[in-house]
Design brief:
The protein is of the alpha+beta class. It folds into two domains: 2-88, no CATH class; 94-190, no CATH class. It is built from seven helices and six strands. It has helices spanning 2-31, 37-40, 44-50, 56-84, 153-158, 170-183, 185-190; strands spanning 100-103, 108-117, 122-130, 140-141, 149-151, 163-165. It starts with a helix and ends with a helix.
């Protein structure tokens, strides 16, 4: 922090101070009457300024004030930047832990994941997949549009029955998940 403050002091403040001092001195010289302009370059006025007594507590207060202002500026900037994007982050809601449940007359298990839509401030259910009734792993939907079936890759590799007909459609399961989230029914199902 001190290095940043020192760099700021050298880069910004000192450059501005030297520029302002130069033009202030130039303005003083131009505005002086002609008979006083010769005394201006004796720099007796500068000696009297430099010999002015400065009280230590005033210097400490001035340095402390500069440090506090620098810290407040950084704190305010950080706080402002964080608050601008807070709405984009997903809220810490226990509903996001509700990811597996049973649906339909045959109590088929399904799993899913969530996305957070920050501009609508809503949960989007995604990747709705059935779980295999034999090994309880995620199944893949068959590529046929006319059938409603899924294949378990793990069971196929192990030589077990791997092709299952589904009684539910993934769209219907997604709508039921949303309904359970909206009514709060998911809380009872997680217990």
């Amino acid at each position: 922090m001190l290095k940043k403050m020192f760099n700021w002091f050298i880069d910004k403040w000192l450059a501005g101070f030297l520029t302002a001092t130069f033009f202030f001195m130039l303005k003083l010289y131009i505005d002086l009457p002609d008979e006083k302009k010769t005394d201006f370059f004796n720099f007796d006025w500068l000696k009297s300024i430099l010999q002015t007594e400065i009280v230590l507590w005033k210097v400490v207060i001035l340095i402390g004030f500069v440090i506090i202002m620098f810290w407040l500026r950084n704190w305010w900037k950080k706080r402002k930047d964080n608050s601008l994007y807070d709405f984009l982050s997903r809220p810490n809601d226990p509903a996001f832990n509700y990811r597996v449940d049973t649906f339909g007359v045959d109590n088929a298990k399904w799993t899913w994941d969530y996305d957070w839509e920050p501009y609508k401030k809503s949960i989007i259910v995604k990747d709705v997949l059935p779980l295999c009734p034999v090994c309880n792993s995620k199944m893949e939907f068959d590529g046929f549009y006319t059938s409603n079936s899924a294949t378990c890759v793990k069971c196929r590799l192990e030589g077990k029955q791997y092709h299952f007909n589904l009684r539910q459609f993934d769209i219907d399961v997604s709508k039921e998940i949303i309904r359970r989230l909206n009514t709060g029914e998911w809380r009872a199902r997680m217990k």
